[in-house]
Amino acid sequence: MVSFSEHTHARLPVIGGPMYPCSNIELVAAVSDAGGIGVVQPVSMTFVQKQDFREGLRAIRKITTAPIGMNALIEKSSRRYHEKMVKWVSIALEEGVRFFITSLGNPAWVVKRVEEVGGVVYHDVTERKWALKGLEAGAKGLIAVNNRAGGHAGKLSAEQLYDELSDLDVPLVCAGGIGSEDAFIKALSLGYAACQLGTRFIATEECHSSQAYKSAIVKATEDDIVLSEKITGVPVSLIRTPYLQRMGTKAGPVARRLLQGNKTKHWMRMFYTLRSAFQLRDASIRQPPEHKKIQQEFWQAGKSVAGIHKIEPVADVMQRFEAAFEHWHRDDNELRRK
Ligand SMILES: Cc1cc2nc3c(=O)[nH]c(=O)nc-3n(C[C@H](O)[C@H](O)[C@H](O)COP(=O)(O)O)c2cc1C
Q1: Closest protein CA for atom 7 of ligand 1
Q2: 184/194 Cα distance (integer angstroms)
Q3: Residue 295: is its pLDDT beyond 70?
Q4: pLDDT for the residue numbered 258
C-alpha cells in the first residue's frame, strides 16, 4: 500500500482540514509550513477572503513552499457551482497542487484530472458504502469522518469506522475529535495513517475567525456540542449558545419533506447552501457589534473542543503533535523489534 506520506509528501501525518468559512490563506500555509498538509477550501478563499483563487494559491506559496491540498465539494447542486469547481481544480493543478480531498458526490472526474499529472485524491466518507464508491471512482485514500467531527459529522465512532474500512487497503485518515496530541496518538495507535483536524486550527492565531468564536471553542466542553439540521438540512456540529437554543436544531416538516423528495432535494440543498454560506460567514468571521452579539452566536465545532485549552500559534500546536508523534514512533519501532 502506498503510504500517506508518499501520497502527500507531508513530514507529519496531520491534515489541516478544509473549513468553510474558516480556512484562510495564512492558516493553510501555517499548517503546511509546520510539517502537516493544509487544505485550501476554495469557497472560503474566494467568497470569504475575497481572493482571486490563483492569486490566493500564490499568496500561500509566498509563505511556504511545503505541499498543500485542495478540497473539492463535488455535489452538483447547481451547474454554475460545478463549473466553478472544475475551474478551481484546473487552476490548482496548474499551480502545482497535487493532493485533493473530495466530498459528497462521485469523485471520478476529479480523479481523472488529478491523476493525469501524478496527483492523488482522498475521498470523505462516513460509512463503508461511500468508501466503496469513492475507491471504485479511483480515490487512493479515505478521510473517515466520525461522530465527533466538526462540520458535517458522521454517525460512527472512530473505532467503528476503522473496523468498517480497515480491510480496504488504502490509507485511512481519522477526521473528528482530535484536539490534543493524546487523541492524535490514540487514533494512530488504532491503525489510522493520519488525522484531519478542523476545530483545533480555528483556535489559532493564524485563523481569521472572530475572537468570540475562538474563545467559545476554548471554553466549550464536549457536552456543549450539538447537532443541528437548521443550517444545511443535514446535521452539523455546533457549539450550544443561547441563540442556537432559541432556534432549535431540527429542520421543519416542510423542509424535511422537500429534502427527501427526488425532484426537490437538489433545489432545497442549493437553498440551504446559499443561505448557510452567508450565515456562517457572517457569524464566524466578523466581530459583531455589541447589540447584535446574541444573533451571531452560530459557531461550528466538533467534540475535539475537549482537548483545546488555548488560542495559540499553529506552530506551537504542531510542535507538540510532532514531539508526541516522534515519541510514539520510537516506542512503536522498539516494540516491533522486541
Ligand atoms: C467550521 C468547519 C467547517 C468545515 N468545512 C468543511 C468543508 O468546507 N469541507 C470539508 O470537506 N470539511 C469541512 N469541515 C470538516 C473538517 O475538514 C474536518 O474534517 C473536521 O473538522 C474534523 O473534526 P474536528 O473539527 O473535530 O477536528 C469543516 C469543519 C469545521 C469545524
Answers
A1: 19
A2: 8
A3: no
A4: 55
